[in-house]
Amino acid sequence: MSTLQQSPRPEDPGADSTGAAAGGRGADEPDMDRIIYRETHSSRAVMATIAAVVVVALAAYGLLEAAVHAIGQPAWLIEPQVAAQRIVALPAGISPLLLGVIGAVLAMLGLVFFLHGVLPGHRARHVLARGRGGAGPAVVVDDEVIASSLARRARLAANVTPEQVMVVVSQRQVQVNVRPTSGVPVHGDRVRDAVKAELGDMGLEPAPEVRINVAPSGVIGA
Amino acid sequence: MNSTPSVLNRILITVLGLKLLAVGVLLMLLASVPAVAAWWHSWSAGVWNTVNGAFNATRFPGRSESWLWILVALALLVLIVLMVAWIAQQGKGRSNLLAAEYDPGSVPGDVRIGGGVAEQALKHALAGRPDLAGATVVTYDIKGFPALKVRLQPRQGVAPHLLAAEVAGLVKALEAVVGRRIPVLIHIGAGARTRFSRAERVR
Questions:
Q1: ipTM of this complex
Q2: B70-104 as b/e, with b when 16 or more CB fall inside 10 Å?
Q3: In chain A, residues 32-61 whose CB comes closer than 8 Å to chain B
Q4: The pTM is what?
Q5: How far apart are CA B176 and CA B118, in angstroms?
Q6: The predicted structure's pLDDT at residue A131
C-alpha cells in the first residue's frame, strides 16, 4: 500500500494516457487483438508437454545405451548392432500381425499429434463486443456461460422450469430446445425474440444464428 | 495471455506427428506389402553398411569401441536439454509489476506499483458479489508491457455482458487510482464450481 500512496499526482500522465487510448493503439500497450486470438485458440501446451516427455524418454534410453557402449560395458536391454540388424531384416523375425498393429498404433499417435498441430484449435469461447468504441477491456466468454445465460432468458420467455430448457452454443450456432409443460403452449417466436435480444445485447463475435426447437410432447406436472 | 510459444508448439508437434505417422505407415506396409519389404531390405542394408563403416573407422586406437558413441551420447544429451527447455517455456509470463514510471516530483527515483495492488483491489471488490462463484486476478507480462487478466466464474444464468460492464467499471476506477491505462482481459468462464453450485435466482 505504501507504493500506492505515492501516486495521487498523476494529472499529467493520466491525461496523456487517455489521449493515447482515444487515438487508438499506442506504442505503450500490447496488441489486444493478439491477446484475444491467443485466448480463443488453444496454445497446445498439454500436447507439447506430452511430446517433449516422449522424446525425452526415448532420448534418455538412447543415451543410456550409447554411454554404456562407449565405455565398453554390455548393453542394458539390447545391443545396438543387434537391434539395427533386426530392423534391417524387419518383415522377418516378427509376426506380420504384431508388426502391423505396432505400425497402426504409431500411425494413430502420429495422426493425433499432427492434427493437434495443424487444426486451428478453436476453444469453445466467444469474444464480446468491446464496450464504448473499443476503449473497454477485452472480454472473452466461455460458451457454457453464454448458454446458461440464454437458457435463463429463454426459460423466462417460455415460462417453464430450468429443466425444460437446454441450450447448446457452438461457434456459429445457438440451439435452444424447449419442452413445454403439458397443456400450456410455448410460443417459439417469443422465445426466439428473447434469445435474439439477449444475443444482441452481448454482441458476440462471431455472431451465431439462433434455432428454436420446441418439442412436440410436453412434460407433465412441471 | 501467458507467453506459451504457441507457434513453436504447433511446429514441433506437427513435425513429431509426421515422423510418427511415417514410421507407423512404413511398419504397416512392411507387414502387408511384399514389394515394400524388398525395397526396405535393399535400402536399409545400404544405410546400415555406411553407418557400420563409420563406426569401424572411428575406433579408439587399440580398443574395440568407437568414439562415435560419445558423440551420439552428447547429441542425445543436448536433445534432452532442449526438450526440458521447451517444457519450461509452457505457461510462463506471470509478472509482479503493474506500472513503473519515472516520477517527475521532488523525490528522486522511479515509482513502481506492484501487481499485487491491482490483484488485491479487484479481488476484494469482487469478493462479496453473490453472482460470482470465484474470481482470480493475475498480472502478466506481455512483451514487456504489464497486463491484467481477470478470470470470473459466474453462477448459472448470469448475463455475461452485464457482468463484464460492471467489472469494466471497477477496472476504470483502478486505472484512475494507478494513474495509467492498464490493458485488461476479462475471461468469464465456467468450471466445476459454477456447474454444481446453485443458480443465481435473485439479482
A1: 0.81
A2: bebbeebeebbeebeebbebbeebebeebbeeebe
A3: 32, 35-36, 38-39, 41, 43-45, 47-49, 51-56, 59-60
A4: 0.77
A5: 12
A6: 53
